RELD1 protein (Grallaria varia), 173 residues
Amino acid sequence: MEDSRRTHTAIVGWACTTLCLVSYVAAFSHGASLSACSDMMPRHLRVQLHSPNSNYVTVHTNMSFYLPGDKVPVTVRSTRDYMGFMLQARKVSNNEIAGTFIFMPPGSKLLTCFEDGDTVTHSDKSLKRNLSFVWKAPDQPIGDIKFFISIVQSYFVYWAKIESAVVAQGGQN
């Protein structure tokens, strides 16, 4: 009788642990969590950060400068498939998230880190490769910006804060 109780307790404990882990990992298949807003680091179990210098992803725009209120196209290109991402524009001067995304591809959704639509993340775990977005600059001047993307190749491998070239604010005196 004692052995069957131990076996039953062990099975129940294993089942609870497994279900908790599966639900924890599955939660991130629908996008980054708000806890990743400031440092853009995934919160998966046992993830391994790879050097930004060895990544296979580039983020860029065809504009070298923008004016307040401009719509800026942003392209993410990759030579390999990946499951998840988080994309933001940040001020060069103080690293604050800036602007809003007004267009995003299927398989992605807006995330509100500090203001509505200031971040884009994945909405499913389908494999992604090349993505296009449109970012809208605030109507007031904010200075030069860079785009940053964190890429999750799998639950265990990611690259954080891959950056674009600087996009200068035009029309400054």
The longest helix spans residues 2-27. Confidence is low (pLDDT under 50) at residues 9-28. DSSP finds one helix and twelve strands in the chain.
